Structures are given as structure tokens and as C-alpha cells.
């Protein structure tokens, strides 16, 4: 069980592992491009080599890529819909060059097309992203907080997509965001509540699909459907909740990425390691 944070790539991708080590990361997450779109710096073998050398030099065990924010499989805008597919496939290929273990993405919102059509577009889009992909970076769906007709805010919805007859063969995994799941109504504050949550996850998705965590406390209450992160132990999940999550033996080999504000990220990582080591 290793801990890290989302770090900056300012000045070049090869700076990410340096930035990660500076705040105490054992693993780290980054964007490989601007999260809001626009020009993308080309990636070549020399950049990838320098990046991986820095990961080794700074003792980073694994690294992950977060997809850009504009991804929306259910968009009515053809540029966004087709662009989402193209960008995700490109990110998988870039991830493979960089040796990234996973790339994770949100799925988008079906507010303009309705749930049925949105789900249809999601399946079509996922199939296009994965068809013919031979790389080593695994594709993950991130659990959403559920605000505004969001795709992927329930275990049932994520499971239905992953186990669809056109998608199941691609072995897509899940990134479990503690804040998003909490906001979507999945409790983790006590061993009993979290056991029930993981059993629901196993039933609808399968614990074998659970690959990593985003480790964030929650400013809003359980079931709020609001995406607002808080520092570890200072939100509605609380210290007891994180002791419950990190102490669950089913998760002993999972890694955790904190996506909290920079002002206290070092303290968050120290606290998480302290809980683990106890």
C-alpha cells in the first residue's frame, strides 16, 4: 500500500517525478497534457527515457495519468464526443511510452441526450477507445460524485458498462475516489458501513476490477452529489473513515493518490503513511 499525490508537469513531463519526491510521494499521478485542452507537447523516446530515469532516480514505484477534464462520451457536440475517444486512445499510447500503470477518466454527463442515449454513446465510445489497443497502460473508469446527470456515479452504472458484452473483454478497471463515492452515497466511515460498500462494489463490478484509489476527504455530507475535496481527517469522512479504509485487508495491495490542495498535501501524505504503518 503506497501513497502519493497529483503533481505538476510544469517545465516538462520529466519534472513530475522530481515534484513527487519533493513532497514525499511513493507513487504519483499527473496530467500528460493540459487538462483543459489545447496544444499538446509531442512525446518522443528521449522525453520518455528522461521521465522514466527520473522516476527511478527519485524512487517512484508507480505513476498514473489523469485524463483531461473535457472528456464526455455522451456529448451532443460531435467535436467533444469524437475528441474524447481520440484523446483517451492517445493518452493510453502516451501512457505506454511513459510506463504509466493506469490512466483514469470521468465519463461525462448525459444531461443533453438522456440516460438511455448517454449510456449507448458511452458503450460505443469505450469500444472505439479500446479496439485494437495493444499497450501496457490499463484504462480505468473513475467513480463520479453524481452532480448533474453524471455518468458513472453508481456501482450499478459502472458495472453495467464494464460487463457489457462489447466491453467486458477489454478488462477495464476502476479508480475508486473516496470523496466521489461518499458523495454518491457509499459510506466508508465505519468497518460495518465500508464492508457493505465493498460488498456492493463486488456484486456490481467485482473487486478484481478495483485497481487504485483517489484518497480525499469530503467537504459535503454523505449522498450530497457534490464534488468537493477536503484534507484527510478534516471532512465528513474523518480520520476514523480513513483508518477503516486503510485497515481493510482486501485493500492491502492498493495504492492511494491524494488530490487535496497543495497547502497541506505534505501533511496529508504523512498522516496517511502514519495510519498505514500503525
UniProtKB/TrEMBL annotation:
UniProt GO BP: base-excision repair
UniProt KW Coiled coil keyword: no
Domain Xylose isomerase-like TIM barrel stretches: 20-274
Organism field: Candidatus Magasanikbacteria bacterium RIFOXYD1_FULL_40_23
Function summary: Endonuclease IV plays a role in DNA repair. It cleaves phosphodiester bonds at apurinic or apyrimidinic (AP) sites, generating a 3'-hydroxyl group and a 5'-terminal sugar phosphate.
HAMAP family documented for this protein: Nfo
Gene: nfo
Cofactor descriptive note: Binds 3 Zn(2+) ions.
Residues binding Zn(2+) 3: 180, 227, 229
Name of the molecule in the record: Probable endonuclease 4
